[in-house]
Amino acid sequence: MLLLFTERMSETPVAMLRQYLQQQVALGEQRALLRPTAKTALVRLSKGGGVSRAESPLRSAPCPVAKETRPETKEPGTLDVAGSSKAERLANLARMAGEASGPRALGSLRTTLVFATGNSDAKIMFIGEAPGAEEEKQKEPFVGPSGQLLTKIITAMGLQRSDVYISNICKFRPAMPDQGTGNRQPTAEEMKSCLPFIHTEIDVVSPSVIIALGATACAGLGIEGPVGKNRGRVHQVRGVPVVVTYHPSYLLRQEQEGRGLEAKRQSWEDVLLAMATAQLPINEKQRNYFKPRL
Ligand code: URA
Questions:
Q1: Domain spans of the chain?
Q2: Fold of 86-287
Q3: Which of 68-77, 104-113, 132-141, 190-199 has the lowest average pLDDT?
Q4: Would you say the CB of residue 142 lies under 6 angstroms from ligand 1?
Q5: What pLDDT, on a 0 to 100 scale, did the predictor assign at position 28?
Q6: 246 CA to middle of ligand 1, Å?
Q7: Ligand 1 centroid, distance to 131 Cα (angstroms)
Q8: Nearest atom (ligand 1) to Cα of 166
Q9: N or C: which end of the chain has fewer CB within 10 A?
Q10: Is the dihedral of CA 18, 23, 28, 31 positive or negative?
């Protein structure tokens, strides 16, 4: 769908119109006609004013004030989420995820929502697979043992958790018989039920780079195959560069088996690739973390 403006329009009305048009495209619409009074009406909407249906900027559809919630749309598309800032849109998206029927209908996921944490304006977005017991308890991704290792990695990058955006493909802890503190990887079906949320998060946050943690998260994002095959190059998901690396829990397992150093070295190479992709500064110490000293 192509839209041409002959006059300059202020940022907010354009953003509102873009959101509306994307929504129409997602619904399969090919055309949207603008009324001649569109600009005036959009400016009024952007200032919080209302417009009557007759004044709506679009001929064939309701005016582009996004609905408060729309539980689900055709997967693997994105969701129509209201809000005037990224943080507000993500908060609304989290609310929609909590109310969504799809993941619940499977009956194999627990019901506590663990959505995401961090900075909605982040340049770096980490995506894992699904919350575990500790994450469920704290309602925050990556706070258990693998999360602690992820925090160390973020610190080594010269950042804090509050500088990056941390999320999971699957927003609910996968259920197990006699659950206790046991965790399991989400199935393809479980991830699929949450895909519109992570896709929308990617679109809203619009990071400079995504770091995909582990083969399961990668498969959820459509990058199939083992991490060893996919690491070392930059993939694209929804127009965002993606660097693949090992899941922190794999690094912890490797450490227990005495193979930790090589896995960590590779993982750090991936992190440096992601930092370079996001054009973050890399100092000598960071560049040489795993280089042998002469
Ligand atoms: N593993 C994940 O993939 N995500 C979490 O939030 C915690 C552990």
A1: 10-70, 86-287
A2: Uracil-DNA Glycosylase, subunit E (3.40.470)
A3: 68-77
A4: yes
A5: 37
A6: 12
A7: 5
A8: 6
A9: C
A10: negative
